[in-house]
Amino acid sequence: MVNLEREKLDHILQLLKSIDYGSISIIVHDGQVTGIESTKKKRFSVEKKKIKTKQY
């Protein structure tokens, strides 16, 4: 049982190291971790267009 708990912890740590943006959910039933879900997101930088205005 100790190996299983260590395996769960190692999996969570691995997910934390691999995610730049996103979330990790740990599902618990009766005090035991029964599932781990992760969502990774990719962010793209957007260049803002400069609006040219006429100067009078």
Give a quick precis of the structure.
This protein has one domain. By secondary structure, it is α+β, with helices and mostly antiparallel strands. It is built from one helix and two strands, in the order αββ.
Report on the structure:
This protein is of the alpha+beta class and 56 residues long. It has one domain. It is built from one helix and two strands, in the order αββ. Strands 1-2 form a two-stranded antiparallel sheet.
Alpha carbon gap, first and last residue: 77 Å
Question: How much is the average pLDDT?
Answer: 89
Quick one: biggest sheet?
2 strands, antiparallel
Structural class: alpha+beta
User: Could you tell me the strand content as a percent range?
Assistant: 25-35%
Strand order of the largest sheet: 1-2
Question: Care to count the β-strands?
Answer: 2
Helix-strand topology string: HEE
Rg? 21 Å
- Tally of distinct domains: 1
Helical residues, percent: 25-40%
- Number of distinct helices: 1
Residue windows where pLDDT falls under 50 for at least 5 positions: none
General shape: rod-shaped
